[in-house]
Amino acid sequence: MLHDRILVELDKEASERRSASGIVIPATAMLGKRLAWAEVVAAGPSVRQVAVGDHVLFDPEDRAEVEVGAKDYVLLRERDLHAVAESGEPARDLGLYL
């Protein structure tokens, strides 16, 4: 990775959500602008706030997708991130909204 670029992998299981009453909401449902969580798999030398393995929040509409080794990843700049989850916090327990 070069400069402030970050390569993240989307969580496939996080695409479907459950309502408070347990109803499954598919990823194709339109809910307005929604941010997405992903795991950092690589970071450039100029990245200061994020490390490999962190879970980050970003806008999925502002992304560049790339395929590496038959896997799909998203390429972002560090400034495009909205939040970084605390280390040790399980990704499945992250809230749906900030």
Structure, described:
This protein has 98 residues and is mostly beta strands. The protein has a single domain (5-89), classed as Roll (10 Kd Chaperonin, Protein Cpn10, Chain O), CATH 2.30.33.40. Helix content is 0%, strand content 39%. The chain contains no helices and eight strands. It has strands at 5-10, 17-18, 24-25, 36-43, 55-58, 64-68, 71-77, 81-84. It has a six-stranded antiparallel β-sheet, with no helix packed on it. It has a two-stranded antiparallel ribbon with strand order 2-3. The protein is globular, with a radius of gyration of 14 Å. The mean pLDDT is 78. This is 10 kDa chaperonin. It holds the Pfam family Cpn10. It comes from Sinomonas atrocyanea. GO terms for molecular function: ATP binding; metal ion binding; protein folding chaperone; protein-folding chaperone binding; unfolded protein binding. Keywords: Chaperone.
Compact overview of the structure:
This protein has 98 residues and is mostly beta strands. Helix content is 0%, strand content 39%. It has strands at 5-10, 17-18, 24-25, 36-43, 55-58, 64-68, 71-77, 81-84.
Q: Helix amount, in percent?
A: under 10%
Number of strands: 8
Radius of gyration: 14 Å
Could you tell me the CATH topology label. Answer: 10 Kd Chaperonin, Protein Cpn10, Chain O
How much of the polypeptide forms β-strand, as a percent range?
35-45%
Given the C-alpha coordinates, what overall shape results? globular
Largest sheet: 6 strands, antiparallel
Give the strand order of the largest sheet, numbering strands 1, 2, ... along the chain: 6-7-1-4-5-8
In whole angstroms, the N-to-C terminal distance is: 29 Å
Number of helices: 0
- For the record, the CATH class is Mainly Beta
Low-confidence segments: none
Order of helices and strands: EEEEEEEE
CATH architecture descriptor: Roll
Give average pLDDT, whole number. Answer: 78
- CATH fourth-tier homologous superfamily: GroES chaperonin
Number of domains: 1
SS class? mainly beta
